[in-house]
Write a structure and sequence with these properties.
Blueprint (H helix, E strand, L loop, with lengths): L1 H29 L6 H10 L8 H22 L53 H7 L2 H5 L3 H12 L3 H13 L3 E3 L3 E2 L2 E2 L2 E5 L3 E7 L4 E4 L7 E4 L4 E2 L1 H19 L7 E7 L3 E3 L2 H11 L1 E4 L2 H10 L10 H20 L1
Parallel strand pairs: 5-9, 6-10, 9-11
Antiparallel strand pairs: 1-4, 2-3, 4-5, 6-7, 7-8
């Protein structure tokens, strides 16, 4: 039984190693994350058009599958014990009834053990995430921290799209949302962070590119225009949104579901293949607007609902949590 458990553990270790190596390979070669549902949805869409997926992608997938199965076979295959049936001269046996003196059993030592004594293991420290540590502190201490003023000054100074930020703030405030100071998530500085009723959260960026352009998602995710290529803004905002969702799952109870909505607004652009990529952007959970006017029209049709008097305390707690999240990303 113990041998079977060892084989099962080795199988699990082998599959975990193959999954990690396969994810590293596909990410380096194709920019594809095998643990992302959005990427698999995008692959399914691409397979509808013949020739859009590189043959090396399928070859790599089959290769990793074959290596994984082969490894499981070599780990789990039965090993037959070889027995030598050749005749060997037998040693004369001792007379029945009495063992030779050198084979007489010795007295059992009660302190003897064939295994070394297990060392005393140190007790691991309790790990508390940064958000949990901040939420456990006193509310008065959080509100009177001088870091908040420093944070606001840093964000306003580092903001590149100051005009776009003001325009986005005006659009969302006119739609009834509460605009927060946008944080920096990884290498991306958000241009808007807004909260609304029913735990709604908007994050977005304003891309300065303008004119005619063609969008591409997957691989290196480069958009092309007559003024040069640039990284897909949809890919940038969805990467940031994924980090925010991961933080939510680590710090919130499963009963609390925040509706995260990501968007990109272009600078009066004309995306030639916008209709074709609409399904892909929907799979990524991102909205794309070609101009500020298009975004303003959309937000007027999707205004924040009115707050009831009994909901004020819950909304303030939710808004304070979002401030804590933004502060955490600015410090990481």
């Amino acid at each position: 039984m113990k041998k079977r458990y060892e084989i099962l553990l080795l199988d699990a270790l082998w599959l975990s190693a193959m999954l990690l190596f396969a994810n590293f390979w596909f990410d380096i070669q194709f920019g594809f994350n095998i643990f992302s549902n959005a990427h698999w949805n995008y692959l399914a869409v691409q397979q509808l058009t013949p020739g859009r997926v590189l043959p090396l992608f399928y070859i790599s997938m089959v290769g990793f599958l074959a290596v994984a199965i082969g490894g499981l076979y070599f780990i789990s295959r039965p090993r037959v014990r070889k027995i030598n049936f050749s005749s060997q001269p037998t040693q004369p046996s001792a007379p029945m009834g009495k063992l030779p003196e050198e084979l007489q059993p010795l007295a059992k030592d009660p302190e003897f053990s064939p295994l070394p004594k297990a060392p005393a293991l140190p007790r691991p420290p309790k790990i508390i995430s940064p958000l949990q540590a901040q939420r456990r502190s006193e509310p008065t201490e959080i509100k009177t921290q001088p870091v908040a003023n420093t944070f606001n000054t840093t964000v306003n100074t580092a903001a590149v799209n100051t005009g776009a930020n003001e325009k986005l703030k005006e659009i969302f405030e006119n739609a009834g949302y509460t605009v927060k100071s946008p944080p920096k998530i990884g290498d991306l500085r958000l241009d808007l962070l807004a909260v609304g009723m029913d735990e709604t959260l908007y994050i977005g960026i304003a891309d300065p590119h303008t004119g005619d352009m063609t969008a591409f998602e997957g691989g290196d995710s480069k958009w092309t225009s007559d003024r040069g290529d640039f990284t897909s803004p949809v890919w940038r905002i969805t990467t940031a949104a994924e980090k925010v969702r991961n933080l939510f799952s680590e710090t919130l109870d499963s009963e609390i579901q925040i509706k995260l909505k990501a968007f990109v607004v272009m600078n009066n652009a004309n995306i030639l293949n916008k209709d074709a990529l609409g399904r892909i952007w929907d799979a990524f959970g991102a909205e794309v607007f070609e101009s500020m006017d298009a975004l303003a029209e959309f937000m007027q049709e999707n205004k924040n609902r009115e707050m009831k008097s009994e909901e004020k305390e819950d909304f303030e707690a939710y808004a304070e949590y979002i401030d804590t999240v933004a502060d955490y990303f600015n410090k990481t």
